[in-house]
Structures are given as C-alpha cells and as structure tokens.
Amino acid sequence: MIALPNDDSTCGWYAALPPAGPAKKLIGPQKADYAIIGAGFAGLAAARRLAELKPNARIILVDAQRVAEGASGRNSGFVIDLPHKFALSHPDPSHKQKLLSLNRSAIAQLQGLVERHNIDCQWSAAGKYQGAVGERGEAHLNHFEHLMKDLGEPYRWVEKAELKKILGTDFYSRAIFTPGSYLMQPAALVRGMGDNLPANVELLEQSPIRDLKRKNNQWVLEGDQGLITTPKVLLATSIFTREFGYLKNRLLPVMTFASWTRPLTDQEMNIYLGELDWGLTPADHAGTTLRMTADRRILIRNTYKHVPKYGANVSDDNRHWIQADHRKAFLARYPELADVPFTHTWGGVYAISRNFTNFFGELEDGVYASACDNGVGAAWGTISGTLLADLVVGADSQALSDIQFVTGMPSLNPPEPFLGLGVKTRIRFEKWRSRSEL
C-alpha cells in the first residue's frame, strides 16, 4: 500500500497565493511516451527538458496534490549556489566544484523562467547571511571561512553593528555573507512554473498513483480513476520513491517546520528598523533559519522531526509546541515586536541519507529517479530533474557527467526500531548541543 503525502493545510507560502484554478485529474486510460510522477522542482524541470528534447512526444506529469502544495512549496525560500554544509567538507575539490557548477546552472535556469514567464515570486539576487549567536556559532563560521577560501569563493564578514542594521536585531554576534544565493517565494515560483509548461506536457493534479507495475514491456501507473501506460517513468518523488519499492531502507524522512508573521504594519516597520528581503541560515546547522520577506513577513525555522509516516506523524498538539518553540526564537530576536502574531506554522517532508549521498539514475529498465536532496531541494531538484531527462533520452553533456560523478547510492539504514530510536536521539542531541544558537 503506497503511503501518500499527508501535508498540513497551513503552509503560509501557499496560503498567500490567489486560489488555484480547477485541477485537471487523471481519468480513464491514458498513454504517454514519458510519465513523470511528482510535480515539484525535479518533476517540473524534467518535464520541461523532455518537452524540449522530444517536442513531438506526449509527456504526462502527475502529482497527488496541487502543484506547490508539497515540499517544493514549503521550504524557506532559498536557492543556494554553494554545496551543502556537509558537502563543503568533501575532501575532493573537484567534487565541490562540480556541485557548485550544477547549482549555478539551476539558478540560471530558474531565473530565465521567472523572467520569460513574468512569474511573480519575489525572485531576488539577495545573497545569504550565515549567522552566529555565540562562541559555538562563531567556531562554525571560522570553519566556513576556511572552506570558502579553499573553494575560492567570495565572502565577507558582517560584524554585529552592521548586521543589526540589516536584520533589525542585535541577537547575532557576526555573520558571513555570500553573494551567490537567491531568495524567492517558493509556492509562487513552483505554481508559476506549473502554469507555464510546454504545450506537449499534460499536468494532472490531485491524482495519486496507487501502484506502479510492469505489463507487456510497458509501465502501468494506476490511479483512483484512471491509469497511464508508458515505456518510460521518471520518479521525481523524493522520499516517496521508497513507496514504489525503490531505495527502501536507504532514505530517511525528516520534516522541518517554519512559522511566519503577518506582514508588519508601517508602525511596526518603524520599530523593526531593519531591511526587507534577506535570508539568514545558521552557522550551526541545527540552529535557526531566519527570513524577512519582501512583503514584510518574518519567518522562523528551526524544528526537525523524524516522520516515518510523513504528515500523519504530526498532530495538532505537535504543531502547538512547535509554534511555541518558534515563538521563543522570535521573541529572543524581536522582543519589541511581541504583539505581532504568527499566522501560519507548517512542515515539509524531505529525504536525507546517512552518507549524505543523492541518488540519480536508472533504477530498473525504464524507471529513472532523482531522489534524496538532503535538504537543498530548489537548486538540486531543478538541475537533477533536467539532467534526468537528458539521461532518459541519451543526451550526453558535461553537466550529465558531473551529476553522475557527484551522486551515488544512499547507504542502508539500520532496521526498525533501531533506526527510529537512533534518528530521534540524534535530533534531540543536536538540538541540545546547538541550544545556544537557537
């Protein structure tokens, strides 16, 4: 039995959008040259690239939810060019350079789509701050500076006084600014890309695929009211790849949570005195991510939870204490804005692996996947989906060679109940160890 996405309905990014139009659903038998399951960053990119390479092909992109309701519309709104913190420590310099090149290709692709289709998503070349609160965070920043020097990438230190003018708070001791990251409204960006797919891509929403099986040298995708028959299936399903029987016991489902305020009033902006449109990630990876959006909302993200049953693991009581934790972090930074309420608290599920390795490639004859983004989905999903389409049709490129070089097989997990106990213990330990940075 395939466990479907079970996301909460309180994602602020999605709620801020105008209501979506009617969904086109999978009804009756359909035939396609290519079928893609999952309409997030990876699935949308794969569909666009397949349509470009095979303009006469029929391509069906199917999702269990509406576009932007899932993980791709639930992140903190960063598109980051640098390799992830763990990948930055990789001993092979060429590995890191290839990741950097792939991420920047994704950013260029997304910017081109935003400009071409006039997608209103607060797209901004704002860069990114990596902030420290105390000694532990500053030690991480010193290490980050060393990694930036080794990578040959530009950065600059931002000291407390300057940082306060930007962030509107003196909570942080110092930060490192890197200029290559972009900010955006993720749900708006993802919906905008879904609204502007090529003519030979058919998008089917609210159409969960319940089974995937081989029949007469074709793959059959079975839905509630219809089915798709195709020779080629691309799984852009992240953690849900394991629900189709692939990469089982290799992916860990983790949910991260965020809360945000309503837009600040003019009077509250006069109290805040910081800038608009910036993003800060924690120097200590278990610390707090902080955003001030272009439309005056302050966002807090710092809570992680192991969710083997996805959204079903999160109750209203869970959301209540998660929002309470976020409120503490907000008040520690902005006590003078204590009267500003949170309007939304939400979570999003993503896949990590114990060896921090992404999977990219063919799973079996006619089934391909990009899975396990390890928490950096916007850029990675975009470029991996694009190059997965190249792999499917046999279009060689340096970028395809690069992504094959930096990906591999996620390592096996211990069996339950040891896995769940281990992950929960690790999350609690990291939260305790990073408590000074929260």
UniProtKB/TrEMBL annotation:
Recorded superkingdom: Bacteria
Annotated Gene3D superfamilies: D-Amino Acid Oxidase, subunit A, domain 2 (3.30.9.10), FAD/NAD(P)-binding domain (3.50.50.60)
Keywords, comma-separated and alphabetical: Oxidoreductase
Organism this protein belongs to: Acinetobacter vivianii
Listed SUPFAM superfamilies: FAD/NAD(P)-binding domain
Transcription regulation is among the record's keywords: no
Name of protein: FAD dependent oxidoreductase domain-containing protein
Cellular component annotations (GO), alphabetically ordered: cytoplasm
Ranges where the FAD dependent oxidoreductase domain occurs: 33-391
Molecular function via GO: oxidoreductase activity
